[in-house]
């Protein structure tokens, strides 16, 4: 008979003694020997179930050694055993395994070997008997041994830590639990997750811990977090710590590798949103440090790596997902608390807004291009259009039943949900929504927009970043917020400067009928604050690639002709080239529009030179202007006195019958040498020189009664739009009496209304 070898030396936990008692103290197992289980590098997968032979021996402890040394053991039964959370059970509860064996009833688990007996056996000591498990080979036997040991220990830790008494003892138990997980030969995700879940439950049930206890627990479980995501409840605990103690060293020393692992390996934040929230709070905690954004910048650099190409493909999309969620959260309170009229929620839901001055009529959003609105204000269209209701936030158009063309009334979105930009693309004269965020939301917004700016500086990340942002994944409130669009402009500029088509093509809309960054930052767009400089650079880069085609020019002519002419009028070479190409490729069918383009080109030296070069190729364009000039002229939106002066001084306008100065920025305070200043003085000069004018649009211009009275000499006027001017009722009555041909007039939002 072989002598029993020395038992395995294990770290003694604070739960009340080792689960393996010292040799010679249990059931007189003198003839048995426990295998020497030193760390031999073997790794096993945690068993959840498996087939094994079972034999149960009921005996008093004094007779155990005699029974075990007997050559004639009782019969063996095959069972499919399941290692549940609290017991060992059989799939066929009969025979020896009629009842499950609770882990709390197992006093000891040993590897067993004796002479003239089956090999590869485990001995489970239970009150009043022994359970023997026989495996097919030594590897399976060891796998069952380690799995049973693990299940038994985890069960006991769950029980003890579910009812803590003294926290200093609990902390020691947590450390022992972590050591057990780190030294276990079992290689399975649940080996590290189980202790984390135990600690997570412990923290969720004990919310009155001190800050120091918080930090001690975080430090204790830190080794497990190096290769494992924290469970949801633990994420909430970490978030709370980031918010309450952002300057704690735990944030830098413990949370940094955890967040780095999340960003590198997480595949879907939708399945684990609390990981995203934890990452978001961690970055905000970094921003609260003395160095602020410099620390955040270094963190982004560490995630990208020192080379020119980031080796981790999941980092960028995960960072963008965190940024988008954080930016949305900044406006969430604003969205939920709005009670103005009309609110964005009501606009989204298509709710009707009552008008306190006129009967309630159906509302719909204006066309997103203000310059097209001004161009459409002709005599024939005036009969189809009714009122434009102006609010301090957004313009909506009131429609009465008519047979207007769909092209003039339909918005870019569908009937049930307005287009993303349609809700915001309004007249330049209309003030934007007043959006004020709280101090914390404002800091959060600044931090995460700055991160987007940092991401756009990496050449290898820029294509993917542009693609992720192409659908404009921000709430409407953000697009209406001047601070947000102004800060984000840097990112759009980086896209516009990038020579790669895969990057700058993302400036265009992601699909037909949906506006993109190109429209949002173009003149008239809600985000434009630079009189079209960014728009010009975007057009320049797009024209320099494969977009130098008739299709792109046609799109510009249909949607952005006004901004193109305005910038060309100010000498922008790219826009001059665009207008020349429109003429060369016969993009513009309307003769009046062609004549206005020609006048625009001839108003600057660069335009005149390029137009002359074009005329050398197409002589008929020159002949067109010699016929007396256009009959219709629409000044581009945001035009100034100088713009008007350059345009009117560039050609013949003797045939002009229709003039629209709506939505322009011309005033009476700018010196103008070559043409009448607009405003009251401008109106007086117009009345002297444009005697054949039939249609005049003065909507939202700074004219007063003094200038409007001068219109009484323009006897050919048939249509006059004085909407939102300083017209008085007396002046209106005087004009009606002195203009016999006046048939269409718009005096809404004046004293005469």
TrEMBL record:
This chain belongs to the protein called: C-Maf-inducing protein
Region annotation (Disordered) ranges: 1-20
Record-linked InterPro entries: CMIP (IPR052813), LRR_dom_sf (IPR032675), PH_CMIP (IPR056429)
Recorded hits in SUPFAM superfamilies, A to Z, give: PH domain-like, RNI-like
Q: Which Gene3D superfamilies has this protein been placed in?
A: Ribonuclease Inhibitor
Q: Which GO terms describe its cellular component?
A: cytosol; nucleoplasm
Source organism: Carlito syrichta
Which part of the chain is the C-Maf-inducing protein PH domain? 43-161
